[in-house]
Amino acid sequence: MNRLNKKQYALIKCMERVKIFSGLSPTDILFILKVARTQSYGVGEFVYRVGERGDEMLVLLNGSLAVVIATGQKVAEIKAGTCVGEMALFTGEPRSASIVAEVPSTGLTLTRGSIRLALKSMPNAYSGILENVIGVLSERLAEANSRA
Question: In terms of pTM, does the model score above 0.70?
Answer without folding.
Answer: yes
